[in-house]
Amino acid sequence: MKIMKFGGTSVGSAERMGAVSQLLPTQEPVIVVLSAMSGTTNHLVQIGQQLAQGNVAQAESLTNQLEQHYKQVVTDLYKQEASKDKGNQVVQTVFADIRACFERTFSPASEKIILAQGELLSTQLFQIFQHENGIPSVLLPALEFMKITPDEEPDQVFIRENLRKQLEKYPDAQLFITQGYICRNAKNEIDNLKRGGSDYTASIVGAAVKASEIQIWTDIDGMHNNDPRIVKNTYPIAELSFDEAAELAYFGAKILHPSSILPAQQHNIPVRLLNTMQPEAQGTTISSKRTGNKIKAVAAKDGIIAIKIKSSRMLLAYGFLRSVFEVFERFKTPIDMITTSEVAVSLTIDNGTYLPEITEALQRFGTVEIDSDLTIVCVVGDFMEDRPGAALKVVQSLRHIPLRMISYGGSKNNISFLVNTSYKEDALISINEGVFQEKEETNA
Ligand code: ASP
Ligand code: MG
C-alpha cells in the first residue's frame, strides 16, 4: 500500500485533478490524501474570523462568494449531467453545514466545523471525477478514524484500529480517497491538525497501514538547498535523512509539515516529495539512509524572540535550568535554541503568546532581556564531530554578519545561528556563496 498526498494547487482546478488521476498507480492499492483546493482554507479562516467578531453579514457574503466559486468548479470539472448533479449536491450540503454555524453562538468548535469543509469538498468532488472517468474508488471518511488525544497528539492505536476496520470493508478496492488535515478531538468534536496538516495526515495514515512509501505531491520539485525566493540557483536535494528533513521542515522549508517526519521515521517508511507539474523529476527522498559527508541545505525561520536570563545564582548551582524550563512548560511554549554561559542562559521561542507571563515568572531568577525580530538560520547536513572543520565554511561565510547566538553540537546534523531578521537575506546568500556554489563538490 502506498500513500499519495496531493496539496491544494495539485487539486486546484479541473485540469489539475485530471493530472492527478494520471499519476495514480493501477497495479497497487493506494490511499490518496487530499488537501482542500487552493485558497479554500484561507477563505474558510476568514469566514470564521468574521463570525468571531460578530460580523454575520460579512461571513455570509464570503460564504456566498466561495459557494459561487465551487459551483463554477462543478461546471468546469464534469462533462456528464449526472456528475454535475452529484457535484452540486455535495456543494449544497457543505454550504448548508457552513451556514448552520451562523445560527449558533460562535465557538471554537463551530469554527473547526467550518475549517473542515475544504477537505470534505475536495475529496467528494475528486471521487465524482474519478467515477465519471470510469475509475472505481472508495471514500474513507477521515472523521471516522483520525483522532487526536487531549494533548493534541495523534491517537495512534485508535487510528490504526479504526482505519483497518474501514479498509477491511473493501478487500478488493485499489483506490481509497481520504481527507487530509481534519480529525476528531478527545471530545469527539471535529478538529484539525493545524495549517498544512494534510502532510501529517499522510504520514500518520502511512504509519498506521505500514505503507511502502509516502508520497507528498506539491508544486515544487522537492526540498531545495536554500530559499528560492531569496537565492538564485537553488536546487532540489535528492536525498535527506529523516533527521535532516525534520530540522529543515521545522526551521523554515515550507514544503513539508514538520510533524510529518516522525510517524514515517518511527516505521522507517520513505517519504518522497514530488512535483505534480513535473512528475518525472526525481524530487527529494527522505529515508533512514545516511547520505554522505555533506552540508545539504539552509533554511530560515523568522519571528523568533530571544530571552536572556542573567543570574549570579546560576554560578556553580544545579537545578537552575530546570526551574527556567519549568516556566516554559507551564506556559506550553516550546524552546527552539538554547545557549548557556556560567552566569546566563539565552533561549529562543517563536510563540510570544505568553511572553509577558513568562518574563514575569523568569524575573524571579535574575535579569531578563527580551529581543524580537530575530531569525534562526539553520544549516543542515553531516557535521559529525569527528570531521574537523566541518562547520568552518559555514561560519566563515557569515564573518561579516553579527551573530546573536550560535548552536552547534546539539545534533550531528545541524548548526544554527540567530541573527537580526534584517540580516537574513544576506546570511542566506552568503552561505550559498560560501558553501553551495559548487553543487557537486563535497563541501567539507
Ligand atoms: N487545507 C489545510 C491548509 O490549507 C491543510 C493542508 O492543506 O495541508 O492548511
Ligand atoms: Mg502544505
UniProtKB/TrEMBL annotation:
Enzymatic class: transferase
Matches recorded under PROSITE patterns: ASPARTOKINASE
Any Pfam family: AA_kinase
GO terms for cellular component: cytosol
Pathway of action: Amino-acid biosynthesis; L-methionine biosynthesis via de novo pathway; L-homoserine from L-aspartate: step 1/3; Amino-acid biosynthesis; L-lysine biosynthesis via DAP pathway; (S)-tetrahydrodipicolinate from L-aspartate: step 1/4; Amino-acid biosynthesis; L-threonine biosynthesis; L-threonine from L-aspartate: step 1/5
Keyword annotations from UniProtKB, A to Z: Amino-acid biosynthesis, ATP-binding, Kinase, Nucleotide-binding, Transferase
Any GO BP annotation: threonine biosynthetic process
UniProt binding sites for ATP: 5-8, 218-219, 229
Lineage top rank: taxon: Bacteria
GO molecular function per UniProt: aspartate kinase activity; ATP binding
Residues annotated as domain Aspartate/glutamate/uridylate kinase: 2-275
Positions contributing to substrate binding: 41, 119
Known EC number: 2.7.2.4
Transmembrane segments: none
PANTHER family per the UniProt record, alphabetical: ASPARTATE KINASE (PTHR21499), ASPARTOKINASE (PTHR21499:SF59)
Family: Belongs to the aspartokinase family.
NCBIfam families named among the record's database cross-references: asp_kinases
Name this protein carries in UniProt: Aspartokinase
Species, as recorded: Rufibacter tibetensis
